[in-house]
Amino acid sequence: MPKKETLKNDLSLLYLLLSLLFMVKVLVFPTCPPDLMRIRMNSRKNDSSAKTKSAQLWLNGRVPNGFWDRVSNKKAYMRWLGVQLGFRRKEDWYQITKQDFHSNFGGGLLANFYEDSPQQAVFDHFPNYDFKRWLFRSAPQGYWQDKKNRIEYMDWLGVKLGLNSLDDWYQVSRSHFHTNRGGGLLANYYGDSVFRALAEYAPRKKWQPWSFHTVPQGFWQDVDNRRAYLRWLGKQLGFTKLSDWYKLNRQHFSDHHGESIFISYYNGSIFNALQDYRPNHNWSREKLRQARR
To answer: Which among 215, 168, 179 has a CA at the least distance from the CA of 194?
Structure first.
């Protein structure tokens, strides 16, 4: 075939291909001036922003009647509030306060639908999450009046402190309650006494009040309590007859949770302790001195 004819055919084929590409561009990617394209994109963004703002009607200060009756609106507000407060985990909601609602257009919602309780709002928003009421800034009013709630707290505290048996509770002090959101419970319902809290928690166990870090206020003023301690002390020391008590010394008190009673009620005197324990027995000071030699 002559070269001119071949060139002509190639040009025709190239023209056909270019025509097809142009048609595809027009059909699939319709042309639009750059300025018009930017206008359209900005318009879409503005439409999206307008829709969002229209949904967040609480930003206007007042919402239409019946707005908060819809669950979806309450859910939307709570999601928005979480973002405003920087909450990322459910546990972050333990920090919520009334002021957070009032400062973020939610005071009416809180007052009218949740009895002014941030906790109730959180429970409604996360109905399937096991929130611990005492971990909020304050427990709901009247919460500790229910014994079931007090027992639930004690169960939780035992797990939190890694306690494996009831006897492990002897190592628990008032500070453990106060640092684990139970200070109000301990002070208001148990007279700030760990012993009284455990007497309710495990009433079948025969607790020894003197084995705790502190005894209940006024405990040693009761002579029955002092004698109960001395009977227990005698068993710990293996005393089986009255004459064994002449072996008693201050270290025995110190080693068996009795330092406070020895100093406060017996003025550091073994003889005073023996007289208090068995006041009708004729204790001998001489035998007591001999036992110390």
So the answer is: 215
Q: How far is CA 265 from the centre of its chain?
A: 41
CA distance 170 to 186: 16
Q: Which CA distances in Å does 279 have to 21, 218, 274, 275, 292?
A: 117, 22, 8, 5, 22
**H or E element that contains 258:** none
The pLDDT of residue 50 is: 45
Note whether 204 and 266 are same-domain residues. Answer: no
Alpha-carbon gap, residue 32 to 44, rounded angstroms: 16
**Residue 20: enclosing H or E segment and its boundaries?**
helix 3-28
Residue 159 contacts residue 140 (beta carbons within 8 Å): no
Residues 188 and 225 in one domain: no
Print the domain residue range for 163: 146-211
Model confidence pLDDT, tens digit, residues 207-257: 999 999 999 989 999 999 999 999 999 999 999 999 999 999 999 999 999
Q: Are 156 and 148 spatial neighbours (Cβ–Cβ below 8 Å)?
A: no
Distance CA 53, CA 102 (A): 19
